[in-house]
Task: structure prediction
Amino acid sequence: MCSLSRVKTFFEKQQRADYRQDGWGDASELYDRSFGNKFRSYARHALDFVECNSRIVDVGCGSGALFEVLKQHQFKNVDSYVGLDFSPEMIDVCNSKRESADPASFYVANGENLSCIEDNSKTLAVALFSVIFFPQRSRGLSEMYRVLDQNGVALVSGWSTVRNLEWVYYSNQSMKLVLSSEKYEPERVALKALTGHMTNQKPNFLAWSNPDDLKQEMEDVHFRNVRTFEKTERFLMPSPNSCTRLWKDMASSFPTIKYLLNSLYQDDVMMDTFPNHKARKIEFEESISKTFADLIGERGPPPSEEDPSSCYGYLDGKAIFGIGEK
Ligand SMILES: C[S@@+](CC[C@H](N)C(=O)[O-])C[C@H]1O[C@@H](n2cnc3c(N)ncnc32)[C@H](O)[C@@H]1O
Result:
C-alpha cells in the first residue's frame, strides 16, 4: 500500500476504534476503577445546573458516573433514571452497582438511535463525554431532543483542546520524549510511516474548539436558550506510582491509544525487527508511563496545595458543558 493511503487507512481505523462497542467494553472495569472517580466529579458539578430532573435518560452512561452521583443524593426528585450505553460490558458494571430499590434501569443501546425511548418522555437528557465519540454527533443530539418533553432540558459535555486535557497532553508529551531516544528509533520510524506528517490530527474526542461550537451544534438540532460553561476539575496525584498506573489504565481503556500501540507493534517491520515484539511493547509502555510520572512530578504539587508533601503532582481537565431547552 502506498504510504499516503496507508496513513489515511490508519487514521480512519483509529477513529473507528472509538465507534466500536468492544473498543470501550473490553476494559470497562479498568475504566471504572481509574476514571470513575474523575468523571463523577464532572457529573456532580453538571447536576448543579439543572433542575427538571424527574425523568432522566443518560446517553453513553459508561460505568455509571452520573448514576452514582444521583444515588449519593438518594435520587432526590428523581422518578426514573435510564442509563444507556452501546457497550454491554459497561452496562454490566452499572448493573453491578444498582440496588433493587433504585429507580434506575440500564440498557444496551446505540446513542444515535434511541428507539427504545418514546418521544417526549423525558425531562432531562444527559450525555457526559459520550456524544463526542459518536460518528454522527448530530444524530445523538437529535435523539436527545426527540425524547425530551416540551420543557425538557439537555445537558452535554466534552473536551476542546489537548492542552485543556492534561492527562492526554502529558501522555502525548511522554510518548514524544520516549520516541526521541536512540533506543526507540525503530518505533519512531514505524510510527512516522503509520501517521505520516499528520501528527497533529485532531482526535474525535476534541469535539468542539470552544463552547460556541457546542452551542451551535445544539442549536442546529433545535435546542433553545443554549448556555455553555467550562469547568476545570483538578486531580491530585499522590505518588509516581499513581501516575504510572493512570497512564497504563489509559493505554488499556482508551480505544484510540490502544489502537495506536497495537498497530505499532503489528507493523511488519517491527515484527521482523523484534521477534519478541510483545516484550518490546511492554518495555516501550513502561518507559512512557515512567516518563509520564516524571513530567507530572517535575511540575510538582499545585501552588495552592496546603500540604505539598502529601501530593506528588496534579492533572487538570477543562471540560465544556452545554445546556439547552427543547
Ligand atoms: C468517556 S466514556 C463517558 C462515560 C460516562 N458518561 C461518564 O461520564 O463517565 C464514553 C462512553 O460512551 C459510550 N459510547 C460511545 N459511543 C457510543 C454510542 N454510539 N452509543 C452509546 N454509547 C456510546 C462508551 O461505551 C463509553 O462508555
Q: What stands out?
A: The pocket of S-adenosylmethionine is lined by residues 24, 39, 43, 60-62, 65, 85-87, 90, 110-112, 128-130, 133-134 (CB under 6 Å). The longest helix spans residues 277-299. The first strand starts at residue 55 and ends at 59. Strands lie at 55-59, 80-85, 104-108, 122-128, 148-159, 224-237, 313-325.
